[in-house]
Amino acid sequence: MSSLNHPHIVPLIDFFDEKDCYFIVMELMSGGDLFDRIGKKKTYSEADARDLVVKMLKAVAYCHARKIAHCDMKPKNLLLMSDENDSFIKLADFGFAARVHEPNSLSKQCGTPFFVSPEILMRKGYDQQSDMWSVGCIVYLLLSGSLPFMGRSQKELFRKIVAGKFDFDDEEWGQVSDDAKDLVRKMLVLDPSKRITAADAIRHEWLKASRDRLGMIMLQGTSQRLKTFNARMKLRSAMIAIDWVSSLKRMTSFSQRNLTGSQKSGSSGSEKSSPLIAAARRMKAHEDAEKERQEKANDPGARPRPQRKAVAENSDAKTPSPTRRTSPRKSSSSDGKKSVSSATKSMKKMSVKDGKNEPREANTPMEI
After folding, report:
1. What is the pLDDT of residue 114?
2. In Å, how far are 33, 41, 56, 167, 193 from 188, measured between CA atoms?
């Protein structure tokens, strides 16, 4: 930007690079917004619009001749020099500007929705000619007070820009000269190679027309529409932003709904298949157990599993169950007393045979 030196381009005076940021010193433009100034004018003619277009095209042609594309042409970047002069404008805001080394070499997606060129929206390579589409939208706005492409949503707006269809409404364009309409048509061409260049636009018939003749074409309706243009653009931008947020919410809820549905279908499928899986597991466990039993039965060297049982030293002796305490049955006969005493003696012999000195209680289990 420091290489640009033109009467209708805001100059870069100095530049300071700090650790966390940088500072740009530029010329003070105290004239305010261009459209607010036009709305305040008592008279506004086609000659006034033509003078503004001439200054704008000279600045754009200067940049294009030096292989620089502005990439963000819009009315907000046309600043008035002072409060005294209504037509001394300067081009500002080169934040998206890029140097064009060869035709259609730019690919960065940038611009303002209402003024962006179709080749940028279609993600094609572009160059300085994308600025001429934006300039055509500005000229259309200066002459009619409205934009050539409008939409209730960003998607609708971009579709109309890519289609490239616009018209000249009789209510807004009834008083505008045919030469002005011809220049707009040559700027708003979808094919950038067939779009008029800035150098050719400066030599257009409309820009050479007599000021007296164009001064007789009054555009008071355009002046009133331009006066409220900024407020309408804020409303339009808010509507587009709300529509974009709503679309994003719909997409998010749709994705969450699909994710929840897939999780439910997956869980229901697993619930349906769980009885089959359990039956298969039980069958597999049964087969493994049967196979293990057969292998042990066929192996002659396998030791039998030890069993817990009570062994009596004398097979004729009757030993009570180890897990249940037996109490001698009360009997008045002498045979009953003898059987109880013989059982007690047998228990004492077994405890000694077991290798322990203390007598074992009758309800304590014995293991081999």
Report:
1. 92
2. 25, 28, 16, 11, 12
Question: What CA–CA distance (Å, rounded) separates 44 from 221?
Answer: 9
Is there a contact between 150 and 159 (Cβ–Cβ < 8 Å)?
A: no
The whole-number pLDDT of residue 354 equals 46
Note every long-range contact of 194-197, with CB atoms under 8 Å and residues 24 or more positions apart, other chains counting. Answer: 195/129, 195/132, 195/133, 196/132, 197/64, 197/128, 197/129, 197/132
**Residue 306: HSE in the Cβ half-sphere, 13 Å Cα cutoff:** 5
CATH number (3.40.1790.10, 3.90.550.10, 3.40.50.300, 1.10.510.10) of 32-247 reads 1.10.510.10
Distance CA 115, CA 111 (A): 7
Tokens 């077994």 correspond to 350
Express each pLDDT in 189-204 by its tens digit: 999 999 999 999 999 9
Q: Cα separation of 294 and 285, whole Å?
A: 14
Can you tell me whether residue 16 is helix, strand or coil?
strand
Residues 6+ apart with CB under 8 A from 307: none
Concatenated DSSP letters of 39-85: HH-S--BHHHHHHHHHHHHHHHHHHHHTTEE-S---GGGEEES-SS-
pTM: 0.66
Sign for the CA dihedral angle at 110, 116, 117, 121 comes to: positive
Q: 212 is written with which tokens?
A: 């007296």
Q: List the catalytic residues.
A: 72
How many C-beta atoms surround the C-beta of residue 158 within 10 A? 17
Q: Which of 71, 248, 249, 237 lies closest to 154, judged by CA?
A: 237
